[in-house]
Amino acid sequence: MERDATMPGEAGELGEHVWADVLSAVDRTYAELIDYQEKLEARNLELQALQDFLASVLASISDVLVVVSRDGLIENASRSFCDATGQEIAALTGQALPGFFAEPARSQVGAAIARAVRERRDSVLEVELAGAAGPVPLEFSVAPRLDRRRRATGAVLTGRPLGELRRAYGELEASHEALKQAQSQLVRNEKMASLGRLLAGVAHELNNPISFVYANAHALEKYAGRFEQYFDRVQEGAGRDELIELRQKLRLDRDIRNLRHAIEGAREGSERVRDIVEDLRRLSAEGAGEMAVFDLADCARTALRWVERGVRRSVSVEWSGPETLPVLGRMGHIQQVIMNLVQNAMDAMAETDRPRLEMALSCAGGRAQLMVRDNGPGIAPEHRSTIFDPFFTTKPVGQGTGLGLSISAKIAEEHGGALSLCEEGEGACFRLVLTAAEAAA
Questions:
Q1: pTM, whole model, 2 decimals?
Q2: Distance between CA 106 and CA 130 in Å, rounded?
């Protein structure tokens, strides 16, 4: 028989090595366990922090939030939902959410949850929650709750009380209406400011025909007195020779010829006053009604005429384009825009030796265009980007509100058009674009 070649001493050394390996493996395993425990405790801390954060969110949000399972059973809910139902989250957990609604809302909520789980599709409902203090109208948004594999594990329902929504919508609508009224008031104020600058010209324009009417009325009164004196003698039975002499003395033949001229003059002056008053009425009209077709060329001529009445110096005006140009809009507002452009041009040419104003009308592609150009100093490059900003003005204090161009640009936008500054040519040039009547039709 063969004997084992390992000696007793060698066997002892081998056993020590095995025990050393075992102890080393135990140490490594223990270290790994310690490391794993530290990581597990860190994850537990993170999970606890996340749960605390989620709980604080659920406790602080004012909207109703409910998390349900695939079967519609409550898994978590916000503090607002607990307060509405009068139950704590521990009592709510596991209850069927549709049970907190009365028919037909109960069926609608159940169907929405099933649709969210089955089709992974959002839906919005207006339902009444059976709250502890009475029905609570809610707008519920139902969305699927997905896991990492994009599988639906339930649904999340968020709801906002409709009373709060309707109150918010009401406040928004009231604010919008107040803004529109403020804008309208701003337009009216700017229009009145423009009228104030033209009062001197208006007074002079009205004074001439009124004086003409007064003079002719005075002449008619004198003629009437002479005719009354003559016919009184006729009724008293005066003889023919006396009547002929009286007629020559009173110059009735000349008065009869002048009578027609006096009547025509009085009528002409009255019609002139009527036209001025009509222009003034159209200019001061609010113009906030429905849009209608009007002649842009006539509107521009009227606006120019009104501004010219308030200008003390002669300005050369050059017209180009069609005689009539029908457009769609509110004539009173567009007339205000054109008056503002013309008035700015007149002010810019105050120091110009030979002031010249160009009014060019054109129409192409369903868009009507009016260009107003002056030969003044023009607009400085640093002001071109801010020329339409509210309250921006280069005029001295007290001579401009800084709202004219801003309001004019807003009016043009409301008409579906635009007011812009032209880059080419001398002086300042503004382009007003509106919708042509044929394009609107």
A1: 0.44
A2: 10
